[in-house]
Amino acid sequence: MGLYIARRLLQAAALVFVLSILIFGLVNLAPGGPLAGYGQARHISPEKAQILKRQLGLDQPLPTQYLVWLAGNDWMKVDLDGDGVLESTGSRRGILRGDFGFSFTTRQPVLSEIGQRLPNTLYLMSITLLVAVCIAIPAGIISAVKQYSLVDIVITTFSFAGQAIPEFWLGLVLIIIFYAWLKNPFTGDPLLPAGGIASLDAPFSVGDRIAHLILPVVTGAMGWTAWYSRFLRSSMLDVIKQDYLRTARAKGLGERMVMFKHAFRNALIPLVTLFALDLPYIFGGAVFVEMLFSWPGMGRLYYQAALQRDYPVLMAVLMIGAAFMIVSNLLADILYASLDPRIRLDR
Amino acid sequence: MHKSTKLFFFLWGLLALLAAASLVGCTASPTTAAGPTGEASPAATAASSDKITIVIPEDPQSFNAAIADQGYDSMVMKMTMLGLASVDPQGQIYPQLAAELPSVENGGVVIDEATQVMTVTWKLRQDVTWADGTPLTADDVLFTYEAIADPATGLYINGLDYVEAVTKIDTYSFAVRFNAIYPSYQTLFGGDQVVIWPKHFCSAADGFTAWACNRQPLSSGPYILQEWIAGDHLTFTRNPKYYQPGKPAIETIIVRIVPEASVRKTMLVQGDADVLMWATEQVADELKNETAVKLSVSPTSRFVLRLFMNLAAKGATDPVESPNPVFADVRVRQAVRQAIDVDTISKEIFYGFSSPVWTEFFRQPYVCDIPRPKYDPEAAKALLEAAGWKDLNGDGIRECDTCTSAAQGEPMKVELLTYSEYGEPLDLTQQLIGEMLKKIGIDAALSSVPGSQMWADYASGGLEQRGDFSLDLYDDGYAGTDPLPFIQNYYASSAAEPDNGWNVGRWSSPEFDSLLEEAASLDETQRQETFCKMAQILDAELPQILLFSTINAEAYSARLTNVEANINDVVTWNVADWTFVK
């Protein structure tokens, strides 16, 4: 197993390198340029554009820009004042040394931008996924065990609805109902806040945090719940038809025992894998939910960066997201192997 | 089997731990930008009656609007920083840090008639201090100028290339020497983009665009930044050292970042927001009947929706060598203008909040009397016939028949392009204009691209810079009182060179170029005349077709007074005067 993981990590390093070229190329070759976002009046003056390009390093040819992004420019001379003489030493260290550069729009280090948003996204997404899994597992089991019963039909209906309803629409409707229409009978305030992580002028309280979580979590968890419960249902149904369940029943085990000890655990294996593959979303966040509920998370950071062509932020989020994805894949494989003794990885 | 249970619970446990950790982390992680004075934030204790909330869709990029000018930066800058002078909604320039506005009359401006250069002497107010108590002096102005003009770390601001030198006279006065007559001298270090920065606080080594005070400024204005949590909110409190006695009246202002437009509107209606910056036509219409909400709508906006016609062929930049088959002929441009029913678009799509505009010189201080063109599709058709565009095969689309720049039989096809960020009103306008053009026999294919693609520079493949368009539709305008830089940028023949301006229709007129030079004057009567001559040329030649101005409105809670929309500035231009209704 150790050897297998080592080999996979080595492959991953090579993959990340290839990805870095792809991401840099795609982001930079996409039509449009980052400077257009520098003006409320629709475009900026040529003089200003020239200075900005130089300051942002956009005056260099693309291969040089890639090299600087990857390995920094503190080992070479650059022309800062635009007189054509390379007089100053660069200050970038490159992503290989953990320097993702600075945001074109805020001029802040990209990692600090991500650092401000990441905790908020981890917080929201982990709770969203937790809620989704907690609802999906019982729902999936019941749905499978009582196949074609009324309960199954109800759960199935909700699952399909959950997958079909767009998050954006659901969130808006929830805001209208719980923020604009329904009032707290004691205070007369809206029943739930319209967005944000916490009330600004109130001291920290768990109740306030939960009140701010309800709508975004419900909106975000809807799709996940539907997806996981459908998946678990079909996985359960597969297992239920297996011979070893008949054997278990023949041994005289109670139905409850058969279902939980023998069926459920086996049905769970593919779900755990699926879940591991979904882990990168905890990093990436959900754009729609964050937009609707004014949640200062990664999804919005990425969306803004994409709109404003903030290349360094865009590339950093993509690179770190890709790394998460690779690690999650590895994790999924390892989990699968350890859960299912029939699978051997190190062969 | 046993192993799987363990792993499963391990995963769950991990998740729960993660959730708990981030819950705790969230309360601790946001770094508080301590006020420059070091005072603790009174925000938590302020009564809600002494606190208002402004809602905007995205974070300001910084407090230095000279860098990006995306509006939100200007909004927070105006709350904290002061320039020498600024512009009110009527287009009048008023002094801020300046004791008075220098002019030829009061001896503040001296013109050397022989060399046609000028020197402007400014006197600063002597009662302004930074929030830490340090007086604001001419040294700060010199520091700001040097930071902007630094070739490595500075930036370009309008008029910078006309400044020869800035020299200190005494603690509270300084002189700006220009290398030409520069009419906008009063707002060079002011207006909606430029403010004076503190010499003792900002790091000259980091430079104008990168220094830390762009995000943690030291106030000279009415409010002090206490806290900025990216993507969530900024908290401001009253600056006790603000120079105007008794102002500002409101203790705390919170700027909340709320990306979704309908949520911003609902928050205003529910009383959770007090000022909604830049209300769109739709929002203004929806808020019309809300009693708890008021609207301040500018009589006219600075943003004019306009059509840009490429006089060169699509993909070319030389209108002489490769003229545009359709738009090279001025009669076609006139026909297009006559075919568009501006009033219908304004009423149906912009909720009647827009006003028709047909000349660049439509607002104070320079208004020219150009007769409004008539909506007359029949006249438009006649013009196209005369220009040699006839429907030869009876399909409703005209073909070239002895027209000037297209091949015989070539159909009259154009691509009507707009940018996607504006949203539905612009998309609908584009559709309507497409239909109107079709009615006179021009086939307009509709398409839309992000602004970053439309206005990128030549190297990045900007569609306009490369001339890779035939007919563009978008809104633009200028803040302040001097139209000259804006007009230059759009109509000077030098601005037709790629990456040298935005005359992307590649129209040029030597007569117009010389008028541009004439307009660089401080003689207001002569300026007015020159601008109106320009207006006549533009009206006859139609390098652009101006349609109507879009809305400029601020929506605010009825418990506030003195909130006023300003086409020359942002909503917080007079934030120190805002008060609660008694």
Overview of the structural elements:
- The complex is a heterodimer of chains A (347) and B (582).
- Chain A is mainly alpha-helical and 347 residues long.
- Chain A contains 13 helices and two strands, in the order H-H-H-E-E-H-H-H-H-H-H-H-H-H-H.
- Chain A has helices at residues 2-29, 46-56, 62-71, 110-145, 150-164, 167-181, 206-240, 243-250, 255-278, 280-284, 287-292, 298-308, 311-339, and strands at 77-78, 88-89.
- Chain A has a two-stranded antiparallel ribbon.
- Chain B contains 13 helices and 25 strands.
- In chain B, a hairpin with a 2-residue loop joins strand 6 (163-170) and strand 7 (173-178).
- At the A-B interface, helix 2, helix 4, helix 6, helix 9 and helix 11 of A face helix 1, strand 10, helix 4, helix 10 and strand 21 of B.
Brief overview, please?
The complex is a heterodimer of chains A (347) and B (582). Chain A is mostly helical and 347 residues long. Chain A contains 13 helices and 2 strands; from the N terminus they run αααββαααααααααα.
For the biggest sheet of chain B, the summary is: 7 strands, mixed
- Work out the helicity level of chain B: 25-40%
Gyration radius over CA of chain A: 25 Å
Number of strands of chain B: 25
Largest sheet, spatial ordering of strands of chain A: 1-2
Structural class of the secondary elements of chain A? mainly alpha
Distance between the termini of chain A: 9 Å
Beta content of chain A: under 5%
Distance between the termini of chain B: 72 Å
Strand order of the largest sheet of chain B: 8-9-10-1-11-23-12
What percentage of residues of chain A falls in helices of 4 or more residues?
Answer: 55-70%
Q: What oligomerization state is this entry in?
A: heterodimer
Task: Pick out the low-confidence regions of chain A.
Answer: none
What is the residue-averaged pLDDT of chain A?
89
Biggest sheet of chain A: strands, sense, closure? 2 strands, antiparallel
Count of extended strands of chain A? 2
Low-confidence stretches of chain B: 1-12, 21-47
- Determine the number of helices of chain A (DSSP H or I, runs of at least 4 residues): 13
Give the overall pLDDT of chain B as a whole number. 90
Radius of gyration of chain B: 27 Å
